[in-house]
Amino acid sequence: xxxxxxxxxxxxxxxxxxxxxxxxxxxxxxxxxxxxxxxxxxxxxxxxxxxxxxxxxxxxxxxxxxxxxxxxxxxxxxxxxxxxxxxxxxxxxxxxxxxxxxxxxxxxxxxxxxxxxxxxxxxxxxxxxxxxxxxxxxx
Length: 139
Fold this sequence. Notes:
By secondary structure, this protein is an alpha/beta fold. The chain contains five helices and eight strands; from the N terminus they run αβαββββααβαββ. A four-stranded mixed beta sheet has the order 4-7-1-8. A two-stranded antiparallel sheet has the order 2-3. A two-stranded parallel sheet has the order 5-6. Strand 2 and strand 3 (57-58) form a beta hairpin. Helix 1 runs antiparallel to helix 3. The longest helix is centred in the first third of the chain and has 17 residues, at 3-19.
């Protein structure tokens, strides 16, 4: 893990401790043959820079529409706040180099992960649905 990512995680953990902020869990279907991914792999997947194979499935990212969960996730995994993530995707889309992950309501992320094995999402750690596996949490 890079020094900047470690620093971002430490800063995020300190912020969460003082504000009572929820932890966010990165989840995948329990049926997918993968036990862990590095934060770098998740960052590259969610930023459209890498495809990752997990057994017979190619992992596909879905974003959570919940602003707090999305901010915790992108700050933790990419060191980017919401405005920087939007600016990043605007550049990528404008240059026809990719499209952002589909954004789903928080209540739908877990269902999508279960119904479509190979989907990777993130949810509040307190509401991880049965049938999913937590790869890691932030902060």
